[in-house]
Design a protein that fits this description.
The protein is of the alpha/beta class and 333 residues long. The chain has one domain: TIM Barrel (Alpha-Beta Barrel), CATH 3.20.20.70. It has 11 helices and 12 strands. The protein has helices spanning 18-24, 61-73, 101-112, 143-160, 174-184, 205-211, 233-245, 259-268, 279-290, 296-310, 320-332; strands at 34-40, 47-49, 57-59, 78-83, 117-122, 135-137, 140-142, 164-167, 191-198, 249-253, 273-277, 314-317. The strands form 2 sheets. Strands 1-4-5-8-9-10-11-12 form an 8-stranded parallel beta barrel, surrounded by 9 helices. A two-stranded antiparallel sheet has the order 6-7. The chain binds ligand PBG.
């Protein structure tokens, strides 16, 4: 029978079976691309559920070691540590305690799992009573006073064995100051993952619940240091500055609503690009799934795949373990 429609191009031809689709798939997601953000608490034997982040926990260092060993069997080799400090003061002094939560956990992780790649968050908000990422002086977040503290914090983490430090504070010039401080102290191999284009986003809400860290004094929000969600050119400027100052990789945060920024950055730079699927992105997907409005595994996979398609080389996501499990299953099928 003759077909009256002779079409030179039928894009559906390449979609007809899983094999066809696999051959032409443009973006691949692998556990190697993933970084798992984890929350630390004090004490021992602790695994505290986080109300605002279903399926996520605050771990004491001993339990975190066990969890990370499991992660490595799933093919996830990198974690990013956030400490929940109960000793908060106006200057965030507990951030500089060599026996503080984060340095102790880094030492424990590197001793038990030397091949685990450990990144640490460098910012003051979990440690300051006012909840800001920098030092509060006369009602303002003082840029240059913050730099010194952040650099000391980074060196402390490197001394404990951190492979990467990840400044998330958005102070001007901190990448350069941290690089110099690290090199001067002999930590030439410690990488810097710079939160370069970090927006003042409402999607950090569930994270602030997890760490008990929201602005309480001084400016009511973080808009004098985190970026305006309206801006893209400015993101490129921030990224360029951080590269000049010595960032090994640059980050866009949040990820899902900022894919144009991820894409623009990837096109422009020649360092690895990271994107952070933040707590609000994760919590929204969970909430919709709980209501039965969305399929959780499918939404997890699609949301992260699209961040990768936009150009992210590495993706920080709370879905990391679940996602790795799903990816491993689909490989063996
Ligand atoms: C603060 C910090 C935040 C996140 C990472 N580091 C919150 C903030 O800037 O207020 C957010 C992460 C998330 O929402 O998952 N230094």
């Amino acid at each position: 029978m003759e077909n009256q429609h002779v079409l030179p191009h039928r894009p559906r031809r390449l979609r007809q079976s899983p094999a066809h689709r696999g051959l032409v798939r443009e973006t691949r997601l692998s556990a190697e691309n993933l970084i798992y953000p984890v929350f630390l608490c004090g004490g021992a034997g602790q695994k505290q559920p986080i109300a605002t982040l279903p399926g996520q926990f605050r771990w004491s260092a001993d339990r975190l070691v066990e969890t990370c060993a499991d992660l490595m069997t799933l093919g996830i080799h990198t974690v990013n540590l956030f400490g929940q400090s109960t000793e908060k003061d106006s200057r965030g002094s507990s951030a500089l305690d060599p026996d503080g939560l984060v340095p102790r956990a880094v030492r424990a992780l590197k001793a038990a799992l030397p091949d685990l790649c450990v990144q640490t968050d460098v910012a003051l908000d979990p440690y300051t009573a006012h909840g800001h990422d920098g030092v509060l002086i006369d009602g303002q977040i003082d840029n240059d006073a913050s730099l010194d503290v952040l650099a000391r914090m980074a060196v402390l983490h490197a001394e404990a064995g951190a492979d990467w430090v990840a400044p998330s504070d958005m102070m001007d010039g901190r990448v350069g100051v941290i690089r110099r401080a690290l090199d001067t102290a002999g930590h030439t191999r410690t990488c810097i993952l710079a939160y370069s284009a970090k927006y003042a986003s409402c999607f950090y809400g569930p994270f602030r619940g997890a760490l008990d860290a929201a602005p309480l004094q001084g400016p009511p929000d973080k808009k004098t240091y985190q970026m305006d969600p309206a801006n893209r050119e400015e993101a490129l400027r921030e990224i360029e500055l951080d590269i000049q100052e010595g960032a090994d990789a640059v980050m866009v945060k949040p990820a899902g609503m900022y894919l144009d920024v991820v894409h623009a950055v990837k096109q422009r730079v020649h360092v690895p690009v990271a994107a952070y699927q933040v707590s609000g992105e994760y919590a929204m997907i969970h909430a919709a799934a709980e209501k039965g409005w969305i399929d959780l595994p499918a939404a997890m996979l699609e949301s992260v795949l699209c961040i990768r398609r936009a150009g992210a080389d590495m993706i920080l996501t709370y879905f990391a373990p679940e996602l790795a499990r799903t990816l491993n299953e689909s490989v063996s099928r």
